[in-house]
Amino acid sequence: MSPEPRPSAPSLEQARRQIRGYGLDADPQSVLVAVRLMAVGARLGQASEVHFSRFGLSTGRYRLLADLEDHGGGKSPSQLAASLGVTRATVTGLLDGLEREGLVVRGASAEDGRGAVVSLTDRGAQRLKDMAAEHFDRLQGLVAGLSVDEREQFLSMLDRIDEGISALTSD
Amino acid sequence: MSPEPRPSAPSLEQARRQIRGYGLDADPQSVLVAVRLMAVGARLGQASEVHFSRFGLSTGRYRLLADLEDHGGGKSPSQLAASLGVTRATVTGLLDGLEREGLVVRGASAEDGRGAVVSLTDRGAQRLKDMAAEHFDRLQGLVAGLSVDEREQFLSMLDRIDEGISALTSD
DNA sequence: CCCATATAGTTAGCCACCTAATTACTGAGG
DNA sequence: CCTCAGTAATTAGGTGGCTAACTATATGGG
């Protein structure tokens, strides 16, 4: 069963009501933007899983494969964790799945007895190639509602919001 | 162990290289916007979990509590699933946790022998009240890098991207 | 040379999301 | 009536995140 269609977007009125209800003086517009962003982000994440599942992948597995290909050679699980922004434990899990599917191989490191080297298999490279056209096409569709200028602005705002994320996690 | 600091943001150059590598003619800027949005969305989701965990909640559990309070009375799990945009199975899991913590109670429905009615307990309402000031403050911090006008624009663009999400899931 | 500490990778266990299957009840047609 | 399709909620099992703890190897100081 799929998630229910689309939850009605939160309104400015709702935000105002909540803030007033607690006797606070927060800016309803700011709160609304934050809440909508989180909602859209969550929906996008789920849509992304649907998208990648067409190719027998998940978002995490795709990102790992793409990172490997972009890097152009073998990479250690630690390096992968760093460039994907996830923990090493998560990389272990992703690799387990990818190796089971034969998209990736784990080898021992030559220099470090503790280390491993992960490489794309031919099958893995082929998989990326097979999905490329449709993948990029759909990505373009995602932002097709924005003009070229708007996309430029959007990128800039996104960067500033990225910095603002620390407001949620600081202390 | 935390996820590694911050993966370097994908660049326009990277997008161009990938597209060229597959011999496609996609617009690198569009692809970049889509990829960055997904990356920021994912980071925001993780930050949100950190934020809510301060109050002994998760994003999902908070949204459920807030929805109940906003609704002003009891609500069935099905209604909750619809307004949160998740499956009923997910609601069952969230309720299990919330009920264990005493923030919510499940009662039998008067009209429908199959149905349940979920209500906020005093403890649940108090929890929301306790966290309100800090919560809204941090939400404001998230979008503090944007001017009032930019926030207005951002909301509009976000809506259009929300519509574009179907490009990922259609068919 | 050896031990202490640090690092690489994995494992185990938690949470939220999903799908699919199960159980219990409703309500409409024969 | 009574059966049978539909709906409410839960359960079971999978995945990807996380943290914490464990194993194995590296490395630097006495």
Explain how this protein is built:
- Two copies of one chain form a homodimer.
- Chain A has 171 residues and is mainly α.
- Chain A folds into two domains: 11-53, no CATH class; 57-142, Orthogonal Bundle (Arc Repressor Mutant, subunit A).
- In chain A, 65% of the residues lie in helices and 6% in strands.
- In chain A, strands 1-2 form a two-stranded antiparallel sheet.
- The radius of gyration of chain A is 20 Å and the shape is elongated.
- The mean pLDDT of chain A is 91.
- At the A-B interface, helix 1, helix 2, helix 3, helix 4 and helix 5 of A face helix 1, helix 2, helix 3, helix 4 and helix 5 of B.
- Chain B binds a DNA duplex (30 and 30 nucleotides) through residues 1-3, 42, 45-46, 49, 58-61, 76-78, 86-94, 97, 109, 112-116.
Secondary structure blueprint with pairings:
2 copies of one chain form a homodimer.
Chain A: H1 12-21, H2 28-53, H3 59-71, H4 77-84, H5 88-100, E1 104-108, E2 116-120, H6 122-142, H7 148-164, H8 166-169
Antiparallel strand pairs in A: 1-2
Helix pairs in contact in A: 1-2, 4-5
Chain B binds a DNA duplex (30 and 30 nucleotides) through residues 1-3, 42, 45-46, 49, 58-61, 76-78, 86-94, 97, 109, 112-116.
Short key terms for the protein model shown above:
elongated; HTH_MarR-typ (chains A, B); Arc Repressor Mutant, subunit A; DNA-binding; 171 residues; two-stranded antiparallel ribbon; homodimer; mainly alpha
